[in-house]
Amino acid sequence: MNARWKKRVQCIGILTLMSAPFTAGAASTATAQIVSAANAFLSTLDVKQRQSALFEFDDETQRARWSNLPASMVPRAGVSLKELNDAQRSAALALVSSALSRRGFEKVQEIMEGDEILKIAGGNNPIFGKDLYYISILGTPSEKTPWMLQFGGHHLALNITIAGERGLLTPSLIGAQPALYTSNGKTIRPLGQESDKALALLTALDVSQRKQTILSFRLADLVLGPGQDGKTIQPEGLKASAMNERQRAMLLDLISEWTSMIHEAAAVARLAELKADIDETWFAWSGPATAAQGQNITAYYRIQGPHLVIEYAPQRLGGDPSMHVHTMYRDPTNDYGRGPGTK
Amino acid sequence: MKTKFIVATGILLLPGGAAFGHRLDEYLQATIISVEKDHVHADMRLVPGVAVSSIVLASIDTNRDGVISEAEQRTYAELVLRDLSITVDGQSTKPTLISWTFPAPEEMKEGLGVIDIEFKVELMRGGPERTIAIENHHQSAISAYLVNCLIPRDPNIRVLSQSRNETQSLYRLDYAQADGDVSALP
Fold first, then answer.
1. Shortest Cα distance from A264 to chain B (angstroms)?
2. In the predicted structure, residue B165 carries a pLDDT above the cut 60
3. B33: alpha, beta or left, given left = phi > 0 and alpha = psi -120 to 50?
4. Coil, strand, or helix at residue B162?
5. Residue B110: pLDDT over 90
6. Yes or no, beta carbons of A185 and B21 under 8 Å apart
7. What's the predicted TM-score (pTM) here?
8. At a CB cut-off of 8 Å and minimum separation 6, what does A195 contact?
């Protein structure tokens, strides 16, 4: 993490502290705080920047304008962090932070930091870097009417719908490359828990369950990645109704790695919804059933239920699949808040 | 603050600044099918990686003028379908091309181009339990395949099983079809 980036993160912390007394009074709910952060961000923008950042809530083109690829390859709309001054950038990141949990925002920072590493490793390669992340708002920030916050760039696409007190994070693409690096002497694995918890669950299955879980064919990529909105594929693998209580709890804990990225109140509601579905939820695995100590798995896995699709797909590009991971998080019944109750 | 890779071999840089995040040495052929009462609909998404794009482009831009003409697009889409062996209940059947879209050659050279081909297979009346098998021979030396079936929209149709070989070049779908009486489905 370089000094400038560190300063920005510190800025967010200061901004959060500064806004705390205000939000405690005027913005008492999570949604109120997010709306407040959104309005604070918009107030820092000039007219042209606001025009770039704002879209209609039902703008289907903007909704679907996300990718795992760098923005130089698949152009995004909105405003990039590169176009913002320090105060605007702090307000943008404070907005993203307000919609996420502490760990959720930490993951986002780790993914962006990874892209900065790619930039440096590539000789200051201009197609990478933490400046190349875009923020946009679809609709009008409101405590009552649905609106969306989009934030993303290389290996990151957060589509956050706020609908009253509901907060939805689907569809979101969360990836990492490098998926393991050291920063300031600390080992960083942005998606390490997603790897470790999945392997622990697979290991906890008995021989017969593993036979059902492990698919006999290779899965080279995400099935329901960018551009695949609105599709629900036939589930495969082991149904959680055939798991014991401990295994089901492990599955739910694995799922929580995605659901808990959003702010706590929304995460609790989402996990409760998925817990109710747990017997109808499937777990499938393709690839090696082991991983080196401290390293990510190189296997693909999928978790699918009536209101959930999670895919974890290591990528061969870069040489070592454990170092390059794409994951996808969807709610086939409510991506972009299209489902009942959020329109 | 110091940051470093633990596994430096994870980096791959390509000439011209194009690196990471897109396909490299495989031709991804991802197919999603949906089963209806009287036909099977399929969407194929074909993504040639950077290292194999010249092979794929050569079989599309057959006159080598650097442009993918309408005629070349159609010819290639038909070639892809000819490379599929499709059987319904053991009987060989021919797919019908519905639509196709192609990226610019430049996008394909960068491993970013996506070819979309949509086709369907007509289904004659059959028994209550049916089998569809698709074998994809197209560019098998360089391809990675994905084949999946959507959950049927028609409540009279229920997927019984999907099976594939290791590469997914061979896919088999077994499903049951009721004739109005959903309770009869297994």
1. 30
2. yes
3. beta
4. strand
5. no
6. no
7. 0.91
8. A189, A291, A296, A297, A312, A322, A325
